[in-house]
Amino acid sequence: MKICVLPGDGIGQEIVDQALRVLEKVGEKFGQTFETTEALIGGCAIDAEGVPLPAETIAKCKDADAVLLGAVGGPKWDTIDPAIRPEKGLLGIRKELNLFANLRPANLFKQLADACYLRPDIVARGLDVMVVRELTGGIYFGEPRFDGEKDGERFGYNTMTYYEHEIRRIAKVAFEAARKRSGRVCSVDKANVLDVSRVWREIVIDEHKNYSDVELSHMYVDNAAMQLVRDPSQFDVIVTGNLFGDILSDAAAAITGSIGMLPSASLGEGNPGIFEPIHGSAPDIAGQDKANPLATILSVAMMLRHAFDMTDEADCIEQAVEKTLEQGYRTGDIWQEGGKAVGCVEMGNAVLENL
Ligand code: IPM
Ligand code: MG
């Protein structure tokens, strides 16, 4: 199994280091070997090569069976030419590999219930949402786009576009995912205003004909944002476009207590998937051994499950993480009174021990 590792910027390297230790240990335990190779993406690639996504990185990713990514970006590159911002590296590799389906599970570890931002009576109803975000289309990539001037003043626009085939294939992923969960899909759009959303809704409804065992509902995105914080237990799978999914997945993650806990998988067809924490590069704590490596470690579990069909190995990692939380180990982002305060490396050590 070949894995291309893209540590990226900020805390990227430190969290990926811990995740790779976990990967190696789980390999030893189950008799699997993982061959890893590293490549540059984001700000570090801009510094070294002048572009956020060097051709060599694309080639190495395409040559691998899966990609493990840390995070990209930081204040150092905030004022750079927008055409080569670090984020362009991330968007570029998703597009290059045609990873149109982004799975972002947000569930609450019971050990972290007290860290949850919601009222205890709301938390008690449960929180286990899977955001299925369309990742290679919509307003992120739509043409035309413009950043310039018109009529003597600054002027800009982007275009939200969706072809039927793009909607159909992401709807399929959502319905399939729901079948393995509680069997409910909520499609989120803005069909009361946007034409593109009306097309979205129509195609989702049409594709649903192939999944009549799954319950389908629809919600406008503003309402969905509100419902997510009011009563997340009503959701199972949320399927939505690129921009709405970006926003709702952060909201879904944050209500679980920390964005530092949640992994993600970006999948396509015929290309290796990318597995990465949903949080960013946290430049404010980079290099200080403070970052929470658990989202990246859980991303390795998602990689084993989705890319390699290694269910036992994935379960093993997830259980080791739970046990580590059970034992009270806490990085700063999830720290509570009475917890054992640890840094990134110590958190990694604890997970290794529990493996
Ligand atoms: C994410 C991030 C990216 C996105 C940024 C860094 C380009 O916010 O993965 O959610 O908007 O997709
Ligand atoms: Mg985001």
TrEMBL record:
<dbReference type="GO" id="GO:0000287">
    <property type="term" value="F:magnesium ion binding"/>
</dbReference>
<feature type="binding site">
    <location>
        <position position="133"/>
    </location>
    <ligand>
        <name>substrate</name>
    </ligand>
</feature>
<dbReference type="InterPro" id="IPR024084">
    <property type="entry name" value="IsoPropMal-DH-like_dom"/>
</dbReference>
<keyword id="KW-0432">Leucine biosynthesis</keyword>
<keyword id="KW-0464">Manganese</keyword>
<feature type="site" description="Important for catalysis">
    <location>
        <position position="190"/>
    </location>
</feature>
<keyword id="KW-0963">Cytoplasm</keyword>
<keyword id="KW-0479">Metal-binding</keyword>
<feature type="site" description="Important for catalysis">
    <location>
        <position position="140"/>
    </location>
</feature>
<feature type="binding site">
    <location>
        <position position="250"/>
    </location>
    <ligand>
        <name>Mg(2+)</name>
    </ligand>
</feature>
<protein>
    <recommendedName>
        <fullName>3-isopropylmalate dehydrogenase</fullName>
        <ecNumber>1.1.1.85</ecNumber>
    </recommendedName>
</protein>
<dbReference type="GO" id="GO:0005829">
    <property type="term" value="C:cytosol"/>
</dbReference>
<feature type="binding site">
    <location>
        <position position="94"/>
    </location>
    <ligand>
        <name>substrate</name>
    </ligand>
</feature>
<comment type="function">
    <text>Catalyzes the oxidation of 3-carboxy-2-hydroxy-4-methylpentanoate (3-isopropylmalate) to 3-carboxy-4-methyl-2-oxopentanoate. The product decarboxylates to 4-methyl-2 oxopentanoate.</text>
</comment>
<keyword id="KW-0560">Oxidoreductase</keyword>
<comment type="similarity">
    <text>Belongs to the isocitrate and isopropylmalate dehydrogenases family. LeuB type 1 subfamily.</text>
</comment>
<feature type="binding site">
    <location>
        <position position="246"/>
    </location>
    <ligand>
        <name>Mg(2+)</name>
    </ligand>
</feature>
<comment type="subunit">
    <text>Homodimer.</text>
</comment>
<feature type="binding site">
    <location>
        <begin position="280"/>
        <end position="292"/>
    </location>
    <ligand>
        <name>NAD(+)</name>
    </ligand>
</feature>
<keyword id="KW-0028">Amino-acid biosynthesis</keyword>
<feature type="binding site">
    <location>
        <position position="222"/>
    </location>
    <ligand>
        <name>Mg(2+)</name>
    </ligand>
</feature>
<feature type="binding site">
    <location>
        <position position="222"/>
    </location>
    <ligand>
        <name>substrate</name>
    </ligand>
</feature>
<dbReference type="Pfam" id="PF00180">
    <property type="entry name" value="Iso_dh"/>
</dbReference>
<dbReference type="InterPro" id="IPR004429">
    <property type="entry name" value="Isopropylmalate_DH"/>
</dbReference>
<feature type="binding site">
    <location>
        <position position="104"/>
    </location>
    <ligand>
        <name>substrate</name>
    </ligand>
</feature>
<dbReference type="GO" id="GO:0009098">
    <property type="term" value="P:L-leucine biosynthetic process"/>
</dbReference>
<keyword id="KW-0520">NAD</keyword>
<dbReference type="InterPro" id="IPR019818">
    <property type="entry name" value="IsoCit/isopropylmalate_DH_CS"/>
</dbReference>
<keyword id="KW-0100">Branched-chain amino acid biosynthesis</keyword>
<feature type="binding site">
    <location>
        <begin position="74"/>
        <end position="87"/>
    </location>
    <ligand>
        <name>NAD(+)</name>
    </ligand>
</feature>
<dbReference type="GO" id="GO:0003862">
    <property type="term" value="F:3-isopropylmalate dehydrogenase activity"/>
</dbReference>
<dbReference type="GO" id="GO:0051287">
    <property type="term" value="F:NAD binding"/>
</dbReference>
<comment type="pathway">
    <text>Amino-acid biosynthesis; L-leucine biosynthesis; L-leucine from 3-methyl-2-oxobutanoate: step 3/4.</text>
</comment>
<feature type="domain" description="Isopropylmalate dehydrogenase-like">
    <location>
        <begin position="2"/>
        <end position="351"/>
    </location>
</feature>
<keyword id="KW-0460">Magnesium</keyword>
